[in-house]
Design brief:
heterodimer, A: mainly beta, 5-stranded mixed beta sheet, 1 helix, 11% helix, globular, B: alpha/beta, 6-stranded mixed beta sheet, two-stranded antiparallel ribbon
Chain lengths: 64, 310
Amino acid sequence: MSVKFVLRDREYELRPGMTLLSCLQKLDILPEAVLATRDGELIEEDEILQDGQVIKLVSVISGG
Amino acid sequence: MMKCRKCGEKAAVNMRQHKLALCKEHFLEWMPEQTERFIKKYHMFTPEERILVAVSGGKDSLSLWDILVRLGYQADGLYISLGIDEGLGYSQQSQASCETFAARHDLKLHVVDIAREYGYPIPVLAEKSRRGQGKPCAVCGLVKRHEMNRIARDLGYDVLATGHNLDDEAAVLFGNTLSWIGDYLRRQGPVLPASPGLVRKVKPLCRFYERETAAYALLRGIDYIYEECPFAQGATSLYYKEILNRMENKRPGLKLIFYLNFLEARQAGLFQPVSGAAEDELHLCPGCGQPTSAPGLCSFCRLFGQKPVN
């Protein structure tokens, strides 16, 4: 029972039933720094994530 | 479930600083509407003027180009090939993103290849120069600024537009405020007016958070380059952005207030030199005709004239 998160070449797994915001906090990822997509659709912080879902996190920070 | 303020459908983007959540359709309408508002508010350009958009293949510049064209402005693109490979084909990939976008929308894209134009790609140029010891970013910035201005002038464009977003602007402002660099603070803004040798520069996306420009690119289906420039790793601007985002997380709207209150303070004359102090005097470079802060050749012309460092 898990939700998988993919950020660049890293993968994380958390238990289902939490909101996206809670998951990002657990992973110590700032919500301001990423967009979360599921099956190509953007999802927001209050979305409760279910078992087996794969959430792709897109970093939005660029610079140099 | 978070709902779109306009239609009540499921929201795709929540902007806590505006207390505004929008669905895909209404977010894609909102971004161009707001951009148009900023273009007019800051008197950036008119529909009659010709705009050159500096594109890198990233989310910000391609979103800007997309929005300007949708708003009906005469906007052509400029891609500067820097010759950055680092085993990733970074410049090749970013050029391909720009060319794909231009072809898909039937737009004109000018491409300048630095190595072809000046003999060396940016990483080699940086190695040869005193400026580039360690990191090529300083040389890269210098070359890009010079070339963007040169091409815009040579091709008769009225204005040069870049895709800087609010996070970019807030990070620069944060750095300049930490060191209280008055000259830089005075010059930072949505518009840098034209002056002898210098075309007008504008930043129409300067009031959008980086998260919003990325959401626009994703929702619009713009095929942009996700990878960061390999030389950007460890950049101070990224460090400042993270600090600002940590504060934003606790205090939504902090980045926006930081930038907007700065613009107001600047407008009110807070950063003007005290009376009697020397104004920033610019000289025209005898090599290229672009402005420079000291008499004689500008940094760009000196870069190509100087000998390699041993």
